[in-house]
Amino acid sequence: MSFSFHHSESAASLASSAEGDGEPVTDSGIKLPPDAELFPAEVLLLRPTQMAVGMQQVHVKMAKARKKLAKGPAAFDAWLQAHPIPVVLGPAQALYLIDHHHLYECGVKTCYAGAARDLSSLSEDAFWAEMAAAGCLWPHTADGSRLEPSQMAAALPNTVAELRDDPYRSLAALVRKAGGFVKSTRPFSEFMWGNYLRDRVPLALEAPGDVVHFVGRAISHATAGAASHLPGHTPVSAATGEQLDAMADLGAAVAGGDGADSDGEKKKGKAGGKKKGAAAGDCAAGGGAAAGVAAGTAAGGQSSADGACAAEAAPAVASG
């Protein structure tokens, strides 16, 4: 297998995330059958089914891939085989990847793929309609604009090398890691969260990794009532101890710069199982917008963001 690494990422965005990353579930609605036959495929010959990725999270995955590569080529190849790419066979025998759009940016040139479905007998129009119905498309541009499935063929990049950065996709992943919402099996759930946050959390970024500085404010919106229609929404009053611990770690990171890694994961070895009040206190000590959310709940009150966002209309969110 052939692989290399790009070197344009900022150092701050390269923190690894143990075995976790920004995509807790396969984004698409079609899964690779466990008995699927795998075959080597050139990453640049696989057609994307979304127009953007979260580059900060891609950089996290790059660091993870470097760790795997450090174990030697054989171990890296075995890792790639253990994480095959699900593809859909489309008209003219084109291969459309429905997950792992970040591979090229991670430096992987050749991967292992498996056919999740064969739709090669369909016409172009029927193919895109079926892909949309199966939840295998994210019909939004990098700035959140929605397209019809019939527009996707012309709008999608030809290769994954042309995918644009959607920082709100990264922000959503970081918010989840910081306890703002829980994992969901709904296709493209973190893209949905990104679109929700887009109109609520203005970003001023000089590098993809800068998005980590906006997580606290984003959590207050994620736990607000206006987000109740989104998959995995959890008001702080119903948050688990693990979620509150993650918010506390975020507060410590903001206050001291060392409470959490820059991908939003808790550092290993940190004591868990904090009481809600303790977590709220940690957040209040340095969590910015997240502090108000946790502290308000610990006092038995409504999330501070519920009142601030109550007048905001819930956006129309596509299911993928």
TrEMBL record:
Protein name (database record): Chromosome partitioning protein ParB
InterPro entries noted in UniProt: ParB/Sulfiredoxin_sf (IPR036086), ParBc_2 (IPR014956)
One Pfam family named in its UniProt record: ParBc_2
Domain of life of the native organism: Eukaryota
Start and end residues of each stretch annotated as Disordered: 1-31, 256-320
Biased composition (Basic residues): 267-277
Source species taxonomy: Eukaryota, Viridiplantae, Chlorophyta, core chlorophytes, Chlorophyceae
Bias (Low complexity): 1-19, 291-320
Matching SUPFAM superfamilies: ParB/Sulfiredoxin (SSF110849)
